[in-house]
Amino acid sequence: MKDKPMSDNNVPVLPEGLRAGLEEIGAGTLERLHARFAAAAANRHLVDVSYRTVDSPLGPLLLAATERGLVRVAFASEGHDAVLQTLADKLSPRILEDPSPLDSVARQLEEYFAGARRRFDVALDFSLSSGFRLSVLEHLPHIAYGSTESYAQVAQAAGSPRAVRAVGSACASNPLPVVVPCHRVVRSDGSFGGYLGGAEAKRTLLALEAA
Predict the structure, then answer these.
(1) CA torsion sign, 87 to 92 to 97 to 98?
(2) Torsion angles phi and psi, residue 97, rounded to 5
(3) What is the pLDDT of residues 36-46, one digit of tens each?
(4) N or C: which end of the chain has fewer CB within 10 A?
(5) Catalytic residue (one of 143, 182, 185, 206)
(6) Rounded-to-integer distance, Cα 28 and Cα 204, Å
(7) Among this protein's residues, is 182 annotated catalytic?
């Protein structure tokens, strides 16, 4: 019997025709199979966290949602794999890439970046925040589009006027940036302050809303 050709790593090499056929299948069929698998898993309540990525002027954004609502928006600089691991550790390991539960969020983000939307209308899951940080995040959507508030003003609104640094910490660890607009919080002198996505991302968002 003729030996099968082997690669340098002693892995059998597929005949060219078969390899081309598998590549052709992989281009379309695997995507459809994944979609069917995701739908079946969702119908059987086997998935606790669905996620997808979307393009944006800030780079690719990871979106993740539970049955309660959007739970995470992550910048590429955070490391999407690391973010997914954190979600698995803190929420549930039953995570699946499934765009459909996040279609509305993706559409609204696209409208926002196009300047056609000023307020997001999506369910939010604040499971990753608690205590004073949660109070801060719940206030942020009340800062009007195109406006800003200082860290001190947000501390006052959140019920702890002296907790200015804690407001900064809450904004820096906001699990839902852009949608929950921590970019609208600036220093009392008008300078930007820190931002999870970086200073340029914050500048871009404020410029978008000022236009």
Answers:
(1) negative
(2) -70, 115
(3) 545 554 555 67
(4) N
(5) 182
(6) 36
(7) yes
pLDDT tens sequence across 137-184: 999 999 999 999 999 999 999 999 999 999 999 999 999 999 999 999
Length of the chain: 211
Nearest to 70 by CA among 94, 106, 29, 96: 106
**Could you give the C-alpha distances from 193 to 10, 70, 135, 206, in angstroms and in order?**
55, 26, 20, 13
**Comparing C-alpha atoms, which of 186, 174, 184 is closest to residue 142?**
184
Query: Whole-model pTM?
Result: 0.79
Q: CA-based angle 209:157:149, to the nearest 5?
A: 30
From first CA to last CA, the distance across the chain in angstroms is: 73
Q: Tell me if 166 sits within 8 A of 124, measured CB to CB.
A: no
